[in-house]
Amino acid sequence: MPSDEIHKMEQQIPNLIKDIHSDNPDDILHASTEIRKLLQIDNSPFLSKIINSGGLPTFIKLLSWDDHPQIQFECCWILTNLAASTSDHTKLLIDEGAIKPLVKLLKSDDESIRQQACWTLGNITCDSDENRDLILHTNAFPLILDIVKNLDDLKLETVQTVSWTISNILRSIREAPRIEYFKQAIPFLSKLLDYRDEEVLKDTCWSLVYGISQENIAITSRIQFVIDIDPLLCSKVIKLLYYKNIDLQTPSIRFISFISSDIINSKDNIYSKTLISSFYNLLQIPRISHMNDTIWSLSQIITADEEQIKELIDGGLVPILVNLLNNADSPVQIDIFLILSNSIVNTTSPKQLLYLLSQSCLKSILNFYLYGSASTDPTLPNEKLIRILLICIENILNIFLFDNNNKQNNQYYQQCLKNLQDSNGLLFLKKLQNHSNKYIKDKTNTILKKISNNNNNNK
């Protein structure tokens, strides 16, 4: 904005402030509207001038003019802009007593006023945990939630403002709000998840992330905490994983990552199948945070369920995981190692096992241990990885044990033996024959003896 234009507009401020103190509602409305417009300018150069003019107490007083809703609206909008500027200005609003009349406006019959009051409180809240707690202590949160009780009757802008404000309240800078507030919000958040606006959905998901990640919710009961309040909420979040909007996917997968560790132990295991099928698209997104959260969630879900392994295969995830294990950074690799090894260990299906071997799963997990990060990273549990690999190899041999009466099974055994050799499996076993750990040494020699006996039977 040209300096001469700024100067011209600045000259109007004293008269506008004078009119704000007028007894004439028309003059007050005109003045408050013009002041609001000055503050709406990006990086408004008039903030300090208006603050220092002494008009702030009057703006706050005018919030109580119930007979003049348009004046209430304009003054509320002025405070919204001031609260969005600096922490000092926000503190000044609080010190001048703005919170109480703003909370009262949440009960206004005028939707636009309710929205604007909510927006101002949202700006105040996001400045600090202390500001948030001041607002919560006025019993504002139930009033904010109550605004979205009947979504069909509201303007889009109102729903967006409320969902954004809720996320600000549940978010913490240093200390989370009491868990009761999250519990109170869950039914409303579930309702907002049915709203078809991606901004609303994004902020709603972030609210869920902020709430579910609180340390005072036991990790083993996070999903049950949510299900007990709303059994449908988790399914609604899972559906959001199919959206193409990365900004929406980010909080969705983050929420899933927090509850994935106890999905299997929940009362209803319907989530794992839906989740696995959604991960294919997520793994195509070149964003490391998505990758980490997706892989972590998958590693928690793929345990001992053969049906899950089928979903992993049918969903086309195995080749992607193998490629990631061969090329990804180490923080993701250990989780991929666990996914692939769990799949090999826990399947009893020859068809599934042959597919996993054909996709180089065994070769990839062995190479990860022999030549990848596991061979150089001292923080990785070396002996634990060895035990897992030995159990993988043992399960392969158990499924395809040599049997003179089963020609097809013997063909499968020969395929697996060749795969084991091509995957450096025999090299791996020979290195462990004299391992210092008795369990590893004995298990290795048992496996080698089994291979030798099978080979002799096959002659």
TrEMBL record:
<dbReference type="GO" id="GO:0005634">
    <property type="term" value="C:nucleus"/>
</dbReference>
<protein>
    <recommendedName>
        <fullName>Importin subunit alpha</fullName>
    </recommendedName>
</protein>
<dbReference type="InterPro" id="IPR024931">
    <property type="entry name" value="Importin_alpha"/>
</dbReference>
<dbReference type="InterPro" id="IPR000225">
    <property type="entry name" value="Armadillo"/>
</dbReference>
<feature type="repeat" description="ARM">
    <location>
        <begin position="54"/>
        <end position="97"/>
    </location>
</feature>
<dbReference type="GO" id="GO:0008139">
    <property type="term" value="F:nuclear localization sequence binding"/>
</dbReference>
<dbReference type="GO" id="GO:0005737">
    <property type="term" value="C:cytoplasm"/>
</dbReference>
<feature type="repeat" description="ARM">
    <location>
        <begin position="97"/>
        <end position="135"/>
    </location>
</feature>
<dbReference type="InterPro" id="IPR011989">
    <property type="entry name" value="ARM-like"/>
</dbReference>
<dbReference type="Pfam" id="PF00514">
    <property type="entry name" value="Arm"/>
</dbReference>
<keyword id="KW-0653">Protein transport</keyword>
<dbReference type="GO" id="GO:0006607">
    <property type="term" value="P:NLS-bearing protein import into nucleus"/>
</dbReference>
<keyword id="KW-0813">Transport</keyword>
<dbReference type="GO" id="GO:0061608">
    <property type="term" value="F:nuclear import signal receptor activity"/>
</dbReference>
<comment type="similarity">
    <text>Belongs to the importin alpha family.</text>
</comment>
<keyword id="KW-0677">Repeat</keyword>
<dbReference type="InterPro" id="IPR016024">
    <property type="entry name" value="ARM-type_fold"/>
</dbReference>
